[in-house]
Amino acid sequence: MNEYKPIDQEKTNELIVRSNNGDAEATEILVSGNFPLIKAVVKGYLNKGVEYDDLYQIGCVGFLKAIKNFNPNFDVKFSTYAVPMISGEIKRYLRDDGSIKVSRSIKSLAIKIKAFIDKEKNKSGETPTIDEIAKFFDVEKEDVVIALDSCQQMVSLQAKIDEDDPNSQNVLDKLICQDKSDDMLDKLILKDEIASLPEKEKKIILLRYYRGKTQGEVAELLDISQVQVSRIESKIIEQLRNKLKQQ
């Protein structure tokens, strides 16, 4: 991405039209050609506890939104229009801690569960099972999984499924298998789409593709059948594909 060619406004307008008509190559040219612009905005938000690469990706999300919403009739240079869009996306990310929001009730349950686990481990040396935790707090096993996972750091969509295998797919590649010309755009958009899923569907995606659980393991954790997991998972993947096509 360090090799770029500046693009004049006329060419930019042409590329924006092509990009909004589904031309992935035009999108890549716009991103590459505006690398210094995105980088300059990102630099203003360094040293805030978020890695540069993560900030750059979020900046690219803002840039892509600028492409989608820009109209040449605005009588303003695209770069001028894009800067506040990039900046706004980064500010929103930092404000929300870059993560999927968790309800207060789930956070409260997570704290209680953590204290219970520590107490049981100190007492018996054993970590209580999901079933034991659910029984103690009189909640569903699914709620226990959600609460425990709310304390976990989210895995990057770029992360390898198997870190020991250099040829392993990353999380995004396993989730959505599409033409590589569309890959960059999908990587930037997919996180927002996953964040908007209902809790149960989000949990299945999290356990399957972020935690590497089998359908059988997910079924056991959520106390549903493997057939149900398969059906729900297929529905979510199709839903994500359709949403990505609409971008």
Q: Mind explaining what this structure looks like?
A:
With 247 residues, the chain is mainly α. The protein has two domains: 9-95, Four Helix Bundle (Hemerythrin (Met), subunit A) (Up-down Bundle); 104-246, no CATH class. It is 67% helix and 0% strand. The protein is built from 13 helices and no strands. The protein has helices at 9-20, 24-33, 35-43, 52-69, 78-95, 104-124, 130-137, 141-150, 171-175, 183-195, 199-210, 215-222, 226-246. Helix 3 crosses helix 5 (78-95) and helix 6 crosses helix 8. The longest helix is centred in the middle third of the chain and has 21 residues, at 104-124. It starts with 8 loop residues before the first helix and ends with a helix.
- Strand content is under 5%
What Rg, in angstroms, do the CA atoms define?
21 Å
N-to-C series of helices and strands: HHHHHHHHHHHHH
Total helical elements: 13
Based on secondary structure, the structural category is mainly alpha
Q: Give the fraction of residues assigned to helices.
A: 55-70%
Got a strand count?
0
Tally of discrete structural domains: 2
Which stretches are low in confidence, meaning pLDDT under 50 for 5 or more residues running? Answer: 153-158, 174-185
Question: What general form does the structure show?
Answer: elongated
Question: Termini distance?
Answer: 23 Å
Mean pLDDT: 75
Q: Which sheet architecture does the biggest sheet show? A: none
Oligomer: single chain
